[in-house]
Amino acid sequence: MNSLLLMLMDGQFHSGQALGLRLGISRSAVWKKIKSLEAEYGLSIQRISGRGYRLSEPLSLLDPIPLTQTANELGWNFVLHERLNSTNTYCMQLIQQADYVRPQVVMAEWQTAGRGRRGRQWVSPVIAQNLLFSLGLRLQADTRCLTGLSLVVGLAVLATLRYFGLTQAGLKWPNDVYTNNRKISGILLELTGNPTDICHLVIGIGINLNMMPHTQSSIEQPWTSLRYETGQRIDRTALAICLMQNLHHYLAQQAQMGFQGLRHEWEQHHLWQGQRCILSTPNQEISGVALGVNDEGSLRLLVNGQEQSFCAGELSLRLDHDS
């Protein structure tokens, strides 16, 4: 971690002279490092004559000690990086190595090339503001656990957000979490390998935690954050621990009961249950009423009086505002 950033992360003012003494550089060199820090990490740093420099927002860095302890208790490996191109990409590289058998958790304070569904970018422009999380699993000739998996992961994310006060959040098929018609979390599953032999699965989760909507204009779709919705700055380490525990619980439930055992719970939290929606496919748009999901996690849609089912794939669902 950048040494100057560590000095400033408390959000308090630090004089250029004091920073220079600790770093062994001149005040003018401190100013240059401040400018570089803003450009490199996407930060806003205030400068006030006679008081010095401070971060406009204090940083909540992830604490690797309790995170590693929690992962070990769950039988998982854990690694934390300051910066990665993508936690999913790095996690996939790890679990494809022959000596990785246990599930692998990867987190980063910042990622520069995060991905969402359908080839979209997952934007996280400022360091240590959101949760960037991947869980990698090796599957041995058994992909039954993939049935409805993104929906099961959504239940784990939702339980975590509700524990931290976001009681009005709900699920959007197939793998987003919304609140007040704005996206707060997305899920991306990536699979490689041979289904009849060994597969490598990575579950990627992005959650907007402390990033404030008025500070970021580079995100094209409506979004929000846990801090904005609750009015409270979020302890990212505590939330990450809660997410790991909820993921472990729901994955165990699915392994025991299959998705059909969690289907009713998912439908209870589906925001658009019973509402008229538009399903966009690569070739057409289909209008119908969302009836819920089937035992495989496919969307059940009432179209012109006939029920039809749709797998996730390259599909997206939105409300029909003309209804």
TrEMBL record:
<comment type="similarity">
    <text>Belongs to the biotin--protein ligase family.</text>
</comment>
<keyword id="KW-0067">ATP-binding</keyword>
<dbReference type="GO" id="GO:0004077">
    <property type="term" value="F:biotin--[biotin carboxyl-carrier protein] ligase activity"/>
</dbReference>
<keyword id="KW-0436">Ligase</keyword>
<keyword id="KW-0678">Repressor</keyword>
<keyword id="KW-0547">Nucleotide-binding</keyword>
<keyword id="KW-0805">Transcription regulation</keyword>
<dbReference type="InterPro" id="IPR030855">
    <property type="entry name" value="Bifunct_BirA"/>
</dbReference>
<comment type="function">
    <text>Acts both as a biotin--[acetyl-CoA-carboxylase] ligase and a biotin-operon repressor. In the presence of ATP, BirA activates biotin to form the BirA-biotinyl-5'-adenylate (BirA-bio-5'-AMP or holoBirA) complex. HoloBirA can either transfer the biotinyl moiety to the biotin carboxyl carrier protein (BCCP) subunit of acetyl-CoA carboxylase, or bind to the biotin operator site and inhibit transcription of the operon.</text>
</comment>
<feature type="DNA-binding region" description="H-T-H motif">
    <location>
        <begin position="16"/>
        <end position="35"/>
    </location>
</feature>
<dbReference type="InterPro" id="IPR036388">
    <property type="entry name" value="WH-like_DNA-bd_sf"/>
</dbReference>
<dbReference type="InterPro" id="IPR003142">
    <property type="entry name" value="BPL_C"/>
</dbReference>
<dbReference type="InterPro" id="IPR036390">
    <property type="entry name" value="WH_DNA-bd_sf"/>
</dbReference>
<dbReference type="InterPro" id="IPR013196">
    <property type="entry name" value="HTH_11"/>
</dbReference>
<keyword id="KW-0092">Biotin</keyword>
<dbReference type="GO" id="GO:0005524">
    <property type="term" value="F:ATP binding"/>
</dbReference>
<dbReference type="GO" id="GO:0005737">
    <property type="term" value="C:cytoplasm"/>
</dbReference>
<dbReference type="InterPro" id="IPR008988">
    <property type="entry name" value="Transcriptional_repressor_C"/>
</dbReference>
<dbReference type="InterPro" id="IPR004408">
    <property type="entry name" value="Biotin_CoA_COase_ligase"/>
</dbReference>
<dbReference type="InterPro" id="IPR045864">
    <property type="entry name" value="aa-tRNA-synth_II/BPL/LPL"/>
</dbReference>
<feature type="binding site">
    <location>
        <begin position="86"/>
        <end position="88"/>
    </location>
    <ligand>
        <name>biotin</name>
    </ligand>
</feature>
<dbReference type="GO" id="GO:0003677">
    <property type="term" value="F:DNA binding"/>
</dbReference>
<dbReference type="InterPro" id="IPR004143">
    <property type="entry name" value="BPL_LPL_catalytic"/>
</dbReference>
<protein>
    <recommendedName>
        <fullName>Bifunctional ligase/repressor BirA</fullName>
        <ecNumber>6.3.4.15</ecNumber>
    </recommendedName>
</protein>
<feature type="binding site">
    <location>
        <position position="111"/>
    </location>
    <ligand>
        <name>biotin</name>
    </ligand>
</feature>
<feature type="binding site">
    <location>
        <begin position="115"/>
        <end position="117"/>
    </location>
    <ligand>
        <name>biotin</name>
    </ligand>
</feature>
<keyword id="KW-0804">Transcription</keyword>
<dbReference type="Pfam" id="PF03099">
    <property type="entry name" value="BPL_LplA_LipB"/>
</dbReference>
<keyword id="KW-0238">DNA-binding</keyword>
<feature type="binding site">
    <location>
        <position position="183"/>
    </location>
    <ligand>
        <name>biotin</name>
    </ligand>
</feature>
<feature type="domain" description="BPL/LPL catalytic">
    <location>
        <begin position="63"/>
        <end position="255"/>
    </location>
</feature>
<dbReference type="GO" id="GO:0006355">
    <property type="term" value="P:regulation of DNA-templated transcription"/>
</dbReference>
<dbReference type="Pfam" id="PF02237">
    <property type="entry name" value="BPL_C"/>
</dbReference>
<dbReference type="Pfam" id="PF08279">
    <property type="entry name" value="HTH_11"/>
</dbReference>
